[in-house]
Amino acid sequence: MNEVNDVASSGTQRRSESGLESLKETVAGKLHAAADAIQDRAKQNPGRPVSSYGSQAAGLLDGAADYVRQFDPAQVKSEIRNQVRHNPGKSLLIAGALGLLVGVLVRR
After folding, report:
1. Single pTM value for the model
2. Nearest CA among 43, 37, 56, 73 for reference residue 29
């Protein structure tokens, strides 16, 4: 019976990982497309201050697209676990503060 559960959970995990990869690629592609569009607009208006800001924004969006592609949730989960193990008191304080903040935001 445990083998059946293991096989089922590994299949579910693979589907969720492939779905996450697909979502990451979609988001990264959209960010990159937005960066290209902004860069093209900036090139159409050379010498104007807006052009320089457009180029900076395009660079930031390209950086965000790269970050999304490289993001690994398993690594983040592992780092959080290590942080909680090494600093449990601090982690509880942060979790409590975030809980209060979310509560205040949801209430409004």
Report:
1. 0.59
2. 37
For the stretch 35-93, pLDDT in tens is 999 999 888 877 787 788 888 999 999 999 999 999 888 898 999 999 999 999 999 99
Question: Which residue, 29, 50, 31, 32, is CA-closest to 41?
Answer: 50
> CA 96, 101, 78 angle in degrees (round to 5)?
55
- For residue 41, give the nearest of 27, 59, 58, 62 by alpha carbon: 58
Residues in the chain, overall count: 108
Q: Distances in Å between the alpha carbon of 46 and those of 31, 51, 55, 61?
A: 23, 6, 10, 20
Q: Are 35 and 61 in contact (CB under 8 A)?
A: yes
List the one residue out of 16, 15, 30 whose CA is nearest residue 69.
30
Angle between helices 49-70 and 2-44 (to 10 degrees): 170
What Cα–Cα distance (Å) separates residue 16 from each residue in 9, 11, 24, 30? 10, 9, 12, 21
